[in-house]
């Protein structure tokens, strides 16, 4: 590992520059063309050709070293959020993944096996990894890993660091327009329908588990105050770490949409799963332990257990990958203050500060170490596979 760590230190200026460039030029789901071009150019400078447009997705890519044997995939993300840019730190995720791949690639011939870097677009919305799965992008991969930024100096624990699954539901209400002052009684108010649905879901929240979540926005609330709105639209996200609960809550939301239409005389056009659902993340502890071992070489401490979970967590399409093959998705804080939180502009700004760059290097070293262990250690591969099988084995979304 000493050679790998040394390479990452040599690569740091380029990895940090990539993170800065992605921060300064953020691109949202499935639009990450300039981001992918920058990544491909960096890989090419170090002798690796990336296949851009892989899996039928213009902003996906893959690069591989090795030809046979066990196959570990390092997963990259690089999409940004609308309005707040890289406020989830995907510019750091890209730097970590590329650093780990470039640092370990020269060792693969000696280690044996194959190492891939799979670039997946559209994690924030769109389910890029589910599209890659459907295209067969992980079919010949035995295990996969990536690292996600977190807050402060937090490090995700070895046990209990999964994420919630999420399903998305869209509703469009169709009413009848009328003059809001002259003849409102001739109208059917689609805004009343969407507000009724919104408030009913708010009342449902007191009857769900504290770790589950339902949240949404009214996308279209009408066009003018003097017209009874004839069309409105809303989108909601339903989250739970339990698939059965996720499905039950989604059905409850759909029933509320239907009831709001009945109450207002409007027509509801309901579109469940308008984007691929994200499954709850199943961390493979056998693999996480090796990630933790290598991260602690950098002087960071990895907790064994999480603090008691009292609130719901975020979701990731890496969860879908974790139901297909043994996977890890640990998190590492970027060193921001207590008010620097994800999905806020302050978090985006923190991704190009020195503490974030230090986290990038440590995470890349640990991820490369995990991949090296997986390729070289048959006992680890067997343990990861056995754990995956005990958890139910390979499953796909069938909702």
From TrEMBL:
Q: Per the record's keyword annotation, is Repressor included, yes or no?
A: no
Q: Which UniProt keywords apply?
A: Hydrolase
InterPro entries under this entry? Amidohydrolase (IPR017439), Bact_exopeptidase_dim_dom (IPR036264), Peptidase_M20 (IPR002933), Peptidase_M20/M20A_hydrolases (IPR052030), Peptidase_M20_dimer (IPR011650), Xaa-Arg_dipeptidase (IPR017144)
One biological process term from GO is:
folic acid catabolic process
Which part of the chain is the Peptidase M20 dimerisation domain?
A: 162-262
Q: Which domain of life is it from?
A: Bacteria
Gene Ontology, cellular component aspect: cytoplasm
Give the molecular function GO annotations: dipeptidase activity; para-aminobenzoyl-glutamate hydrolase activity
What protein family is recorded?
Answer: Belongs to the peptidase M20A family.
Protein name per Swiss-Prot or TrEMBL: Peptidase M20 domain-containing protein 2
User: What lineage does UniProt assign to this protein's organism?
Assistant: Bacteria, Bacillati, Actinomycetota, Actinomycetes, Micrococcales
């Amino acid at each position: 590992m000493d050679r790998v760590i040394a390479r990452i230190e040599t690569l740091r200026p380029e990895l940090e520059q990539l993170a800065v460039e992605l921060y300064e030029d953020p691109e949202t789901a499935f639009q990450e063309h300039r981001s992918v071009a920058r990544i491909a150019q960096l890989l090419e400078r170090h002798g690796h050709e990336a296949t851009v447009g892989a899996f039928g997705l213009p902003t996906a890519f893959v690069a591989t070293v090795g030809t046979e044997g066990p196959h570990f995939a390092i997963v990259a993300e690089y999409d940004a959020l609308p309005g707040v840019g890289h406020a989830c730190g995907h510019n750091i995720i890209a730097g970590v993944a590329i650093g780990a791949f470039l640092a370990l690639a020269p060792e693969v011939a000696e280690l044996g096996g194959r190492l891939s870097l799979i670039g997946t677009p559209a994690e924030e919305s769109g389910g890029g990894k589910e599209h890659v799965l459907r295209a067969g992008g992980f079919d010949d991969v035995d295990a996969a890993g990536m690292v996600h930024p977190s807050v402060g100096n937090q490090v995700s624990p070895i046990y209990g660091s999964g994420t919630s699954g999420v399903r998305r539901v869209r509703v469009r209400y169709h009413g009848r327009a009328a003059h809001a002052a002259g003849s409102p009684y001739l109208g059917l108010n689609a805004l009343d329908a969407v507000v009724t649905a919104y408030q009913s879901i708010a009342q449902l929240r007191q009857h769900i588990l504290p770790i589950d979540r339902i949240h949404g926005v009214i996308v279209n609330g009408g066009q003018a105050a003097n017209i009874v709105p004839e069309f409105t639209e809303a989108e909601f996200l339903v989250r739970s770490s339990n698939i059965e609960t996720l499905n039950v809550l989604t059905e409850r939301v759909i029933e509320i949409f239907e009831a709001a239409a009945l109450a207002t005389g409007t027509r509801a056009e309901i579109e469940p799963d308008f984007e691929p659902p994200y499954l709850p993340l199943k961390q493979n502890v056998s693999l996480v332990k090796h990630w933790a071992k290598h991260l602690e070489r950098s002087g960071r401490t990895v907790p064994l257990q999480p603090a008691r979970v009292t609130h719901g967590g975020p979701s990731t399409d890496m969860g879908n990958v974790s139901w297909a093959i043994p996977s890890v998705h640990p998190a590492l804080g970027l060193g921001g203050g207590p008010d620097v939180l994800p999905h806020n502009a302050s978090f985006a700004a923190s991704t190009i500060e020195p503490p974030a760059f230090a986290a990038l290097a440590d995470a890349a070293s640990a991820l490369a170490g995990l991949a090296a262990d997986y390729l070289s250690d048959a006992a680890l591969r067997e343990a990861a596979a056995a754990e995956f099988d005990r958890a139910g084995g390979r499953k796909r979304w069938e909702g």
